[in-house]
Amino acid sequence: xxxxxxxxxxxxxxxxxxNPLIAFSAGFASHIILDLLPHCDQDHLCYKKQFGIIKLIxxxxxxxxxxxxxxxLRGRSLYTLxxxxxxxxxxxxxxxxxxxxxxxxxxxxxxxxxxxxIHAFHEYFHTHTxxxxxxxxxxxxxxxxxxxxxxxxxx
Length: 155
Ligand SMILES: [Zn+2]
Prior knowledge:
- The chain is an all-alpha fold.
- It has one domain (3-93, 126-154).
- Helix content is 74%, strand content 0%.
- Helix 1 packs antiparallel against helix 2 (20-36), helix 1 packs parallel to helix 3 and helix 2 crosses helix 4.
């Protein structure tokens, strides 16, 4: 799933948790649940595996998620922002380690024992939606992001 829904849902779970450690854990759990839903990843948005474009989409996606969090949580208490931060970090951590470090920063990471294990764990919970079902793949991400935005309003 794209990073924006992971950041938004993770932050919402973090705020609900009322505890930084549980916030991170809840954000991490939300990552697994979101990855189980049918969705399109950056790879689906490119015809061939063009890593330059995939990197660019990932950076824009990450910045969009952070910008939305800043806008949506503006004026909240420091405690709420901390919970949102830990939740968002939990929601983002799996993609950070497996994709950012494993694909871009340290390409041999997945060849290490821990890197292989993390990638296998990540893939185990990952639904691979065929590109022809891209509407469903986008709809799940829009719905989860929108749900988080509504939740921020009530939290
Ligand atoms: Zn993931």
